[in-house]
Amino acid sequence: MAQIDWYIRRNLKLKQLYLAVALDDLRNIGRVAAGLNITQPAVSKALAELERGLGITLFERTARGVNPTVYGACFVSHARVVLGNLGVARDELRDLVSGASGKVRVGALPAVAPALLPRSLALLKSRSPGTSVLVREGTQEILLQELLSGSVDLVVGTLPDSRTAHFEQKVLFEERFVLVCGRRHPLTRRPRLTWSDLRGHPWVLPPVGALLREPLEAAFEQHGLAIPANHIETLSMHVTCSYVQLTEAIACIRQGIGKYFHELGVIALLPLELPRLLRPVGMTWNPDRPLSSSTRLMMQCLENAVSSSGDSRS
What we know:
The chain is an alpha/beta fold. The protein folds into 3 domains: about 1-85, Winged helix-like DNA-binding domain superfamily/Winged helix DNA-binding domain (Arc Repressor Mutant, subunit A), CATH 1.10.10; about 100-175 and about 280-310, 3-Layer(aba) Sandwich (D-Maltodextrin-Binding Protein, domain 2); about 175-270, Periplasmic binding protein-like II (D-Maltodextrin-Binding Protein, domain 2, 3-Layer(aba) Sandwich). It contains 11 helices and 12 strands. The strands form 3 sheets. It has a 5-stranded mixed sheet, with helices on both faces. A 5-stranded mixed sheet has the order 9-8-10-7-11. Helix 2 (about 15-25) crosses helix 5, helix 3 (about 30-35) packs across helix 4 and helix 6 (about 115-125) packs across helix 11 (about 295-305). The protein is elongated and about 80 Å long. About 30% of the residues are buried.
């Protein structure tokens, strides 16, 4: 124990962290040597020096390559965190030297892209014009993978299951869903609606596998309706709004987005109250990666945008 403590505090080198991560990624000394532009004996020597210094075996040598031991898996996991932290420090220092104010990469689920995110970005730019922002839209599954890999710093949208490992999250608001249609749809002339009134109309549905699809199907079943045979499937709000304008289709979208497009005169809201269908909207981040000052500012702007705008809340 004392040997491990002494070696990590006094003798561990940054290049050894890169070596361990490369060995875990490639599992082959020859490929690691080629990637690091050194010889295979040099890789073997460096690994032996690291293991001797720690007093433990990090990788098992086999005829097919190398595999991490339980100690190696632990060491590599922490090496990735250290290298990730140094990468954030590098980026922030580079921005300071160049006169920029930092960079933040935001993963956005389609639900927040039209309304909440633009307001938050406007706040961010008013406070820090030099901050660079990259916005990536995608499904929850894809964006959470990018959050794990470090491709994005923050994911905004419907929160994943609270039991999801590796992530921390914060609720921004609870939101209900509304039914929308074109402004000239015959159902807009009714002061009250029941679920049976929806029968026979075309629909815009979320694709199978999307977060909203299963609870929406459950709501249909609960009220004795079959899944509409006449429907299209999309997560695009632009396609949804254009399609309901051109047809007598009905769509189910978030209340905040529905109000946003309704106030623009694009769509109409139907007077039928829906149950809560999904988890709250919020921010998700990876606690194993440090939050840059730009990411923290983005999070603050998201919270401020919600608190200053009543149309995002249920």
